[in-house]
Fold these 2 entries.
Entry 1:
Amino acid sequence: MKARLWMPDWVGQYRREWVSGDLVAGLIVSVMLIPQSLAYALLAGLPPQVGLYASVLPLVAYALFGSSMTLAVGPVAVISLMTASALAPLAAAGSADYLALAVLLALLSGVILLMAGVLRLGFLAYFLSHSVISGFISGSAILITLGQLKYLLGAPLPSGSALDILNALPDALSHINPTAAAIGVSAIVFLVFARSWLPRMLMALGVGKAASELLGRLAPMLSVVIATAYSALNQVDQSAQVSIVGAVPAGLPGLSVPGIDMQVLRALALPALLISLVGFVESVSVAQSLALKRGERLSPNKELIGIGVANMASAISGGFPVTGGFARSVVNFDAGARSPAAGIVSAIVMSIVIVSMTRWFHYLPHAVLAATIIVAVLTLVDLKAISETWRYDRADAVAMLLTFAGVLLLGVEEGILVGVAMSLAVLVWRSSHPHMAVVGRVPGSEHFRNIDRHEVQTLPGLIALRVDESLYFANAQVVEAKIERLVQEHPDTRCLLLIMSAVNQLDTTALQMLIQLEASLSARGVTLQFAEIKGPVLDKLKSSELGAKMRDRIFLSTHQAFNAFAPQAHR
Amino acid sequence: MKARLWMPDWVGQYRREWVSGDLVAGLIVSVMLIPQSLAYALLAGLPPQVGLYASVLPLVAYALFGSSMTLAVGPVAVISLMTASALAPLAAAGSADYLALAVLLALLSGVILLMAGVLRLGFLAYFLSHSVISGFISGSAILITLGQLKYLLGAPLPSGSALDILNALPDALSHINPTAAAIGVSAIVFLVFARSWLPRMLMALGVGKAASELLGRLAPMLSVVIATAYSALNQVDQSAQVSIVGAVPAGLPGLSVPGIDMQVLRALALPALLISLVGFVESVSVAQSLALKRGERLSPNKELIGIGVANMASAISGGFPVTGGFARSVVNFDAGARSPAAGIVSAIVMSIVIVSMTRWFHYLPHAVLAATIIVAVLTLVDLKAISETWRYDRADAVAMLLTFAGVLLLGVEEGILVGVAMSLAVLVWRSSHPHMAVVGRVPGSEHFRNIDRHEVQTLPGLIALRVDESLYFANAQVVEAKIERLVQEHPDTRCLLLIMSAVNQLDTTALQMLIQLEASLSARGVTLQFAEIKGPVLDKLKSSELGAKMRDRIFLSTHQAFNAFAPQAHR
């Protein structure tokens, strides 16, 4: 161990040739981050500067503690939606209480993530299946879009579930603000154009592919600039009652530790847990796919710590929950980021924005921010995944659809809880139904195969049953019931041979089951025998009473057990 | 289908020669049931007649809807303790509100059990491992014993956790009621004697083994009769302030459907769920072991329905939660019960007791009931199981000890929740860590074995990895990480062969993982290949994009894959 101050690994390995990539990527990400941080604060029901605050210290914290070289951390759409939905029942959006709760939520999420990382619980996140996450993201994206329509159109729409908003929509459409709607819809058209057509046009004009795509990504910033200029010149807030961002306080946030109240903590505990879970799963999957592209290693537990500390940093600087963003990280990667130094560059740019540029956002119309959000999240809706999954695996598709419907009809937290419950139910169901096969001998060989699928030889009076999974509490009863049924269906059975080639573990419940099974079979004149027990399982079994009792009935191979029974079969 | 009124299967199959066995068993069970039903009502904090009510209609309901031929249903110790612990925070023991809540709890448990049976969710009960149940029962038995000391000794002891009672014990011992304590301790001595020595003495006197043991089982009734007579003759309630049962209303309960209040329902939902779970697990394990002794079939889902309807019957006749009792069912079986008609006999006897004999219980001292409870539950404490489990499987022993400690230190519900959480954690942990082995060829054969355990041949540049479990969301990431690590540790790898002989399922998450893995490996010049894919999995895989891409890289056997790679290996 070298005696030096602690610093992240990448600092020691930093190479001079990385500087330009990190610098360019950091700048480009900042230009994306400015409109996004303002927009996601709006989505979370918070004042715009809170979005900016959440884009400084968390980036530095992640650079110091995270394990991905290219993940871009900050406010993201789904987590902002979850924040709004967690806080809505507790305080009025925009109030001081609401802000304090958002800060506390970030702190709680940070602590949960950090603890999960220290306790090495990263694997727990894998229990949210791909289908459940996909259904959750698609549902959230649609819910976010519906929620932004009030800003996009300047129309009086409620917050709440998808049904609430859709119900109010027909009436609200006759009360839209034409100027706001014109600005919002123009912004959407421009952003869609910029995303899909601009890169192709630029490429046709001879600009390189990568550069064209990056320029396309900067369109949101351009739309913000144009719309703000238009809005300021025409004083649209006065002349047409268009809702604008208004005064954004300048200056870096003071650091503080949020006050903690037990009752509030209890109300925020579940939302914080769900935000941690979703934030981690989203972030780690982006980080993983980027790391694999460059053959880098990613440690899930270190990722938990990185995002955890980032959220704690957000909390002490007056921000709200953050995580690694998908689009932003891809841009960071494509723009040539080689190390987390790119994140520090972004943080510096964002600080400069906060210190000296916040007054420029005064006239920014909310409709443009809504357009930015909608265009960003609608790309997350993956309806094709539903049909593809339906074709590939019905159970997965049902889990996906239920989570999707749960988010839209019940709410964000309820939706993810539906998903978690579905995932656990699938796990429990699967675990309780191990694959089992009655086998027979392949003629002229020592191989044994499923009698339902192959032409094999069996011995009258002998049932040879192969269990294709470990025996433990979750499946012990099902295995026992299957064996009892087999013996009852074949009243001439004199021997039940259990082939344990796939049994890696045999817990206490399974041992009790085997003891009971042995007694009940022998009471009916059926001998229980074992074959192909693995070394560690055999050692364990021998230490038990059953092992001693079964001593002469344990065979090394199914072949030997068959040969031993053969004389009786033909008697 | 025959057009006839619905009736249970056993009615149609009833044989004349079963009558005497059913009659004798029904009578003997009633004689056990009288003191037990009074005692368990006391344990649940309810008036004595409620225990009697819970011993009439539930028995008839189970006889009509259950699937066990010999299960004896009624109040049992652990469920009575759970009832007391569920109701204690909601109303004062003995109050009218408390009674109404007990009835509602029985109704709720009944509905939950019935629905679980109709939805065929019986398998869920198997997710409580043997060790967790054993720890729970032992802990509950000790808690019950501590809770009964106040009646046994006539001492001022609090209700609550084991620590609360133990803390108050030294002080309470100086305030015991000497007469109550004398009665209680004598009853315990008598009951222990009757249980362990009486059968042996009777056998020495030439009485048959079965008859001797049955007579031993009737000792609690005898102690009730003797103690009541003594208590009445000496008017111990007046002369020595001994707590007695007092007036027990006569007459059968009126049927009624309990009133339902949403807030109360919410408070009782979790306790009702836990009572259903524990009641079912306890009951089905007794019923199962008795059914196996006679080679009868038991349907877990029909059992759920039977116990569910029994609880609903208890509720509408003013009773509290019931389930199948262990000791009582064994006595029923040993006394020769052949069909649920024995239960109907018991129900008739209990009705007669309620109509015409309740005044006989007036002078029954609470200390005798406490003695009955203590002697019954202390046999459930299985400390040997802890040491045996510790030797056989450490993880199981830890789960057992934590559940045991949870019941004693935190409470009954908390204890069972600790157990459920432990069971789920074990399931999740196990599922996320599939067994995997890098294999090589056994020289001169077509067999492949783990390179860590056998002397086998490998090919330079080829890693052959066998996954010993289905691939699905819970283990996909772990398998991917293992493969990535393997390839990084062997930089000369050119081919990664995944042997899928144990893969019975491949869900969407696992498919996505394989797609990502294939891309990431091929980016590093490593070819992904599959071998020994099972038929159903192969069909599914072929329908996906990955299947098409991998077409030429799927081998029937590991042997073929090895042969195909061999020329490259030696290049």
Note: The CA atoms of residues 432 and 475 of chain A lie 4 Å apart.
Entry 2:
Amino acid sequence: MIFRQLFEPESSTYTYLIGCRDTGKAVLLDPVLETVDRDLAVLQELGLTLEYSLETHIHADHVTSACRLRSLIGSKVAYPEMDGLPCADVSVSEANPLSVGSLTFQPLFTPGHTDAHHSYLIDLCVSRRVFTGDALLIDGCGRTDFQNGDAGALYRSIHEKIFALPCDTLVYPAHDYQHRHVTTVAQERERNPRLGGGKTLEEFIDIMAALDLPYPKRIDIAVPANRLCGDCPVIENAEAMEPPGPSVQG
Amino acid sequence: MIFRQLFEPESSTYTYLIGCRDTGKAVLLDPVLETVDRDLAVLQELGLTLEYSLETHIHADHVTSACRLRSLIGSKVAYPEMDGLPCADVSVSEANPLSVGSLTFQPLFTPGHTDAHHSYLIDLCVSRRVFTGDALLIDGCGRTDFQNGDAGALYRSIHEKIFALPCDTLVYPAHDYQHRHVTTVAQERERNPRLGGGKTLEEFIDIMAALDLPYPKRIDIAVPANRLCGDCPVIENAEAMEPPGPSVQG
């Protein structure tokens, strides 16, 4: 599967391009009129043929490019059957999923925002995941003030190894203190308060130096225990330790 | 691939269970001593054999269960080679990835938090993605005050169709106003301010009724245009419209 999450800033709309690598066929989900040229360029760049535009619902905040795409490149217009639109070429419903190459978009009837709104499930697809431990966290990063930590090294690690990955790579960190579960390379490049928005090495080092974090409660037991792979003699003490609190992110 | 994101609340640590569906072999990434029993139960439930525990670094906030797992079920202990731990069975580095069944964990040297910290990339794996349009957004949901919107219906849609999916299903919404890109079913069940933490239907309806949102700027042009699949006569007007602002979430 080929996947792109594309953004239209005026209406803050995500358009998703999903293509089948084997057949070169693709779908644009919720395409926006103003970004037709960009979307056509991405299709060409990836060598994909647009089979369908597909909508989750009749949008109230932007105009779809479905019709324009059809007139420009002959793609078919797919809408939830329940919308009853005569301009649509193809209707989808829970009983009538949309197949493109080896991919299936399974419609899920999810009314409420509109009465015919549908979500779409792709149950089998290829993705890239990176597990970043305490290097890069969601809206944060690991501390650099113990265990030979080094803010400059962390900055380079994140830029050279994580931010260099494709934008939609899924980032699964080792911790989160606010019940967030996953992020992407693009999200952290854009909005991570310590690293995002093009912060320089010097800015990052200043931010890390100013954190003024407390001494980690468990460090004196955890580090020696972990240097023994968590071996048992030390573990006996570890079990009596206080809860650690949010020690790695600060 | 079989994937589980597991959470240890005292240190807010995510442990990742990654298994190969074909061979039944699995890896636990950053397992925590206190959750050994849970992790063994998950392995058993999924019919997986633990080949390795694997660490991103020597943790300072919790004790790994690597050694305990080895003594209980014979799994091998894998650490970054650079940590130089005699208790490890297997050492990994950028030049020495870890393969388990058909999966490869490619180490990425990411120092800074510690000087031997590694992230891991899995470049090809199977995931479940749901594209939720304006039904479920990150920390929000679509409006229900126009286009036959209905808060009760939206509540049921999200609970019955989205929240019923496996917890780690990736949720890709149609909008985000804060540069967030992706969420999961688990994240929204837990912390969505309108729906999470077990909010009742009545609470949700009250929240939606109290939003007091402005009339969407583009709705009178966008809805008719989209009912024509974005057909051109209406589009001419649409292009002259004001920017829409964050109208669907409120």
Note: Residues 217 and 243 of chain A are 8 Å apart (CA to CA).
